[in-house]
């Protein structure tokens, strides 16, 4: 019985997914982590990650969720961007936009992973998602198969003033047009809830194009799938590194 339990433990670890979070920023970042409904909450949902430090954890097979950076958190747990409710461990809470998101759906259709970096909720820091060597197998030479996804530009520097979040005279985050204006056109809802009706010809100003030009491989609006969704298969299970300020 003891041998069986040890073997089962080894097997469960072997078929989980490893994540490594690395902070390349010259300042502290507080990652937020949220599992989709019914999925685990890694690391209780958040922790402090000092400059140039990294931290690893595992998630179960079939995990779905998101990871985002929080900035300038105080001793009470309140963060100037990406805040999840005055707490360091988000414990299931999502981040308040604007925040750059790393999104994952693991072991989905055809036992394939789907991952992306999204600016749909706005932007606060650059992010890169990379596969851990030896944990994956490529199905094709497509740009979107097992390759890094990310947003590497400083969008705060080019953020239009009407979308900018300011702190002490500096732009520290950039809102999405949906968050700022809260209308159906930018938020892809109502009569604009289809790919055919959520596009630039219906937007008063093409704000998503600013995001897309700066970060061509990241989601700039809800239906930006064709140039933003990456896929991969495990060998036997994928491992991911999420890098802040790559």
UniProtKB/TrEMBL annotation:
UniProt key word Signal: yes
Q: Which Pfam families match?
A: Thaumatin
Which Cys residues form disulphide pairs?
25-245, 73-79, 84-90, 146-232, 151-215, 159-174, 178-187, 188-198
For this UniProt record, the keywords arranged alphabetically read as follows: Disulfide bond, Signal
Instruction: Cite the InterPro entries for this sequence.
Output: Osmotin/thaumatin-like_sf, Thaumatin
Signal sequence annotation: 1-16
Superkingdom assignment: Eukaryota
Q: What is this protein called?
A: Thaumatin-like protein
Natural source organism? Polypedilum vanderplanki
